[in-house]
Amino acid sequence: MRITVAGSGYVGLVTGACLADSGNHVLCLDIDEDKIAALKRGESPIYEPGLADLLQDNIRGGRLTFSTELAPAVSHGQVIFLAIGTPPGPDGAADLSGIFSAAERMAGLISEPKIVVNKSTVPVGTGGRLEQIIRAQCPHQVHVVSNPEFLKEGSAVDDFLRPDRVVIGAEDDRAAEIVRELYLPFVRNRSPIIVMRRAAAELTKYAANCFLATRISFINEIANICEKHGIDVNQVREGIGTDRRIGFQFLYPGVGYGGSCFPKDVQAMSHVAADAGVPKDLFEVVHQVNDRQRRLLFEKIKLYFGGRLRGKRFAMWGVTFKPKTDDVREAPALTIISHLLDSGAEVRASDPQGLENLRGEFGDRISYFPNAYQALEGCDALLVVTEWNEYRSPDFERLRAALKAPLIFDGRNLYEPATMARHGFVYISVGRPTVGPG
Ligand code: NAD
Question: 324 and 154 in contact (C-beta within 8 Å)?
Answer without folding.
Answer: yes
